Amino acid sequence: KAGVTQTPRYLIKTRGQQVTLSCSPISGHRSVSWYQQTPGQGLQFLFEYFSETQRNKGNFPGRFSGRQFSNSRSEMNVSTLELGDSALYLCASSRDGNTIYFGEGSWLTVV
Amino acid sequence: DAKTTQPNSMESNEEEPVHLPCNHSTISGTDYIHWYRQLPSQGPEYVIHGLTSNVNNRMASLAIAEDRKSSTLILHRATLRDAAVYYCILRSPPFTAGGTSYGKLTFGQGTILTVHP
Fold it and tell me: Among B104, B107, B112, which would you mutate to test the A interface (most chain A Cβ atoms within 10 Å of its Cβ)?
């Protein structure tokens, strides 16, 4: 069974640009969550979507947004990129809430 | 979310058992104890979870103190592939479709486990 798939795996953007990251959850999983991982702050929860609705949101500025489509695929967008947004962005999906499955992440570098 | 405390790092030799401790003195009666690990250059991976009783699965065992203020993740025979950061996480139910904890994990700093050949 295919795992959580994230694209692109690596990307470089310039300050002020915006970026869209994509996530395909495991088939049958309706919950998709996003996390940011940096050396300084560790793993931090961004937001969660379930059946196209945002259920939960972490403590991040409004520049970070996301959405979920009817096929459970999800995208997250970061606008007006800052150097501090350089991070590994992880997507995770879950079927029952007990076990959460993570993708390998998208490495974003902002220059 | 209630807070957990883990040692920053631990070391083990290959094929020896490893006991990774976690303190959670402010755990509530309904909080579940979850463990995830993150191997280098990968996303976190679910290991095990429990509420009150000790739990076993193919990856590890989870021993929970009687007062639930601490728990220990046990790797019975460490391999080089077990070298990772191990996170002990408390999760509040309900884990239902309407629950706000459904897809949310609050990670601490975790324990870096080094396994020596």
Answer: B104
